[in-house]
Amino acid sequence: MFMVEANEAVAELFTDLNVPHLRRIHPEPPADGRKKLSRLLRVLGRPIPGNLQREDMIRLLDSVRGTDDAFAVHFAVLRSMAQAEYSPKLIGHFALASRHYSHFTSPIRRYPDLTVHRLLDRYFKGKLKSKADRKSVPSMDMLTELGRACTFAEQRAEHAERELKMVKILRLLEKDIGAVEDGIVTGVTNVGLFVQLRTYQIEGLVRFADLPDDWWDIDARGGCVVGQMSGRRIAVGDRLKAQIARVNIASRELDLVLGEEDKSQSVRPHKAKKVKASHRKQINRPHTRRKRR
Question: Which of 47, 115, 128, 150 could form a disulfide with 86 if both were Cys (CB 3.0 to 4.6 A apart)?
């Protein structure tokens, strides 16, 4: 909280002085993200207002604390968010509920931090008092371009970090073929179910061909797949046991199958209307780096 307060105080200072500076901005969730979140929450029986506000998200997260839906809801809320970036524009920080926010943390970890420290140094030396002094600081246009470059560099570094983490985890799992892990269904597509392994925080695909013998239809209204013969229903947010089947490090792919106890799981009643294969649709498929075959 001290860090957040410091970041807000410094941003407010330069705003009051009318000095352009590099902010850390986080826009409200985009319309597409809100739509996907609303769709999942309807599936889980937790509808939210169409005009989603920050207070609605807070109430939602409070309502699922300690419940079986908590992981799926937290996961979906996180993925509905826009990405934070660097910009001199006064947009605010949605997640922190901050109107003014900049990265002024110590020790300095980012180039944007350094730009703020340079401005503070000028301020403490009395070089930001007059309009003539303020003309010597970077302009809005310069800061806009700098913000884009810093945001790109940050996202590239995060992508490299995620990629390395995925490769390391896949190498570990490659030596553990056949192991059974706790998983949670995070997405349904026309090729199978995406399941995140809770221990490793990595997603794998359970293909329809590897599900228990049945003809699996996608129920768009229920956000799930339903076995035509068995009537079994597997939905986003369901917890299950997943067995590691195949690992392809080169293509960053992890294939899973259901654990034995989930293969023989008793049928849950379901009265959803069946859909034709030609009308199958993707349901809440999360962003993934898996390559399509």
Answer: 150
Write out the two tokens for 195: 């399941």
Q: What is the pTM of this model?
A: 0.76
* 217, 228 contact by CB (below 8 A): yes
CA separation (Å) from 81 to 26, 84, 130, 157, 266? 9, 9, 40, 20, 36
pLDDT in tens, 71-116: 778 888 888 899 999 999 999 999 899 999 999 886 667 899 999 9
* Strand pairing class (180-188; 192-197): antiparallel
Peptide bond into 269 cis (omega under 30): no
Range in 17-31, 38-52, 176-190, 278-292 with the lowest mean pLDDT: 278-292
* C-alpha–C-alpha distance, residues 142 and 137, integer Å: 10
Q: What is the pLDDT of residues 247-293, one digit of tens each?
A: 999 999 999 999 876 665 543 433 433 333 333 333 343 333 333 33
From first CA to last CA, the distance across the chain in angstroms is 46
Cα separation, 36 vs 33, in Å, equals 5
